[in-house]
Amino acid sequence: MKKIIFSFVALLFATLSYAQIEGKWKTIDDETGQAKSIVEITKKPNGQYYGKVTQLLIKPANANCTDCKDDRKNKPILGMEVIRDMKKDGNEFTGGTITDPKTGKTYKCNITRSGDKLNVRGYVGFSLIGRTQTWHAVK
Question: Where is the DUF2147 domain (predicted)?
Fold first, then answer.
């Protein structure tokens, strides 16, 4: 009986943690397939999720986001908050934005988790018009 209860509790915790996105993720460029950076996603007290660049794996042409249009303009990419205001909605995280420091453009964002991978979709207008990157968990 103890084994059954232990198995049930372990399965419950595994299921609950499966849909979480908190942690460190290696970003992969969807065009080149190269690892670009490490982004750490955290949940703030307001219940929303934010992600900031904690390590650059490829040295960018410019270390600052010169093309950003908001409070990130001319700020260093390292330490930059690139994901903002994501909210958990079932097994998906929506309602937030993601900024591409290379171009300075900000997009609406949806994130879903599949095992040790995040599918990060940035889009303008409708989710159908956009692109998806797959990020990998950093252990």
Answer: 23-136
Report whether 99 contacts 72 (CB < 8 A). yes
Cα-Cα-Cα-Cα dihedral sign, residues 101, 107, 108, 110: negative
Neighbours of 83 (CB within 10 A): 26
Return the domain boundaries, the chain: 21-137
Q: Which residues pair with 63 in a beta bridge?
A: none
Residue 125 — left, alpha, or beta (φ > 0 → left; ψ -120 to 50 → alpha)? Answer: left
Q: How far apart are CA 68 and CA 130, in angstroms?
A: 19
CB atoms within 10 A of CB 14: 9
Indicate the pTM of the whole model.
Answer: 0.83
Strand, helix or coil at 77? coil
Give the chain's residues under pLDDT 70. Answer: 1-19
CATH 2.40.128.520 fits 21-137, yes or no: yes
- What percent helix, strand, coil does the chain show, rounded to 5? 10, 50, 40
DSSP secondary structure letter of residue 13 = H
| Size of the chain in residues | 139
